[in-house]
Write a structure and sequence with these properties.
The protein is an all-alpha fold and about 240 residues long. About 80% of the residues lie in helices and about 0% in strands. It holds the Pfam family DUF3307.
Length: about 240
């Protein structure tokens, strides 16, 4: 990857996450375009590009990225609502990355190759990872549906985050997939041990054999599916 692109990303990370205190973010959200911190934030991004490149010859890309950054932040501050903050955060970061990439490409005119998209291994790995997200969660839910412990609906809503179990399962399967595909089988054991430790207290306090068995079945199914898919991908790649 071009070192210029890496330097631009470094400047963005430093400016957005290290040199922007929470108090600045709060003031910008409160005063919006009238906040002095917004314009100081833009100036810091421009200065950081000069610093990471150690040259003033990059003034064109520094000012384009800096001003573009300010426009994106202004859009976010103007249109985001309290309930849409999370969506705007990710949209904001995606636009910043796109801006950096477009400016870098137009100024440095690198030779980009998309030949990697023709690599069968890439598509096979992607298909395996995608299957281990929602499709695998649906398979597991269908298989263990008849063993779901009977609990009052009000208890479920107060003792568990919404869809937390689903996302925990997806993350653990993707981690197992990554560990196995990179030949780090020992990490799978650490992951299983860590989950067992966290679950032990809940299951011990619940004093419910059926709940314990239900959790064990779901966990072993999740780990088993991830291992089978990962080993299958490795086998096909051989």
């Amino acid at each position: 990857m071009e070192i210029a692109l890496l330097k631009l990303f470094l400047a963005h990370i430093l400016g957005d996450f290290f040199l922007q205190p929470d108090s600045w973010v709060a003031e910008k959200e409160r005063k919006k375009l009238k906040s002095d911190k917004l314009y100081l934030h833009i100036a810091i991004h421009i200065a950081l590009i000069f610093i990471v490149f150690a040259s003033f010859s990059v003034w064109k890309i520094a000012f384009v990225v800096g001003i573009g950054h300010g426009i994106i932040d202004a859009m976010k501050l103007t249109f985001q609502l309290e309930k849409t903050k999370r969506k705007w955060f990710f949209a904001d970061q995606m636009l910043h990355v796109a801006l950096i990439f477009v400016c870098w490409h137009n100024i440095y005119e690198p030779k980009l190759s998309l030949s990697f998209l023709q690599d069968t291994k890439l598509w096979l790995f992607a298909v395996g990872a995608l299957f281990l997200t929602t499709p695998a969660a649906i398979f597991i839910r269908v298989i263990i549906a008849k063993w779901i412990p009977k609990q009052p609906s009000n208890q479920l809503s107060t003792t568990s985050l919404q869809d937390a179990g689903k996302f925990i399962g997806i993350m653990e399967r993707l981690l197992i997939y990554l560990f196995v595909c990179t030949n780090h089988f020992e990490a799978v054991g650490f992951l299983l041990a860590a989950k067992s430790i966290f679950r032990f207290g809940d299951l011990k306090d619940a004093h419910d054999i059926k709940l314990t068995e239900y959790v064990l079945i779901g966990t072993l199914l999740s780990f088993g599916i991830a291992l089978v898919v990962a080993l299958g991908v490795l086998k096909i790649n051989l």
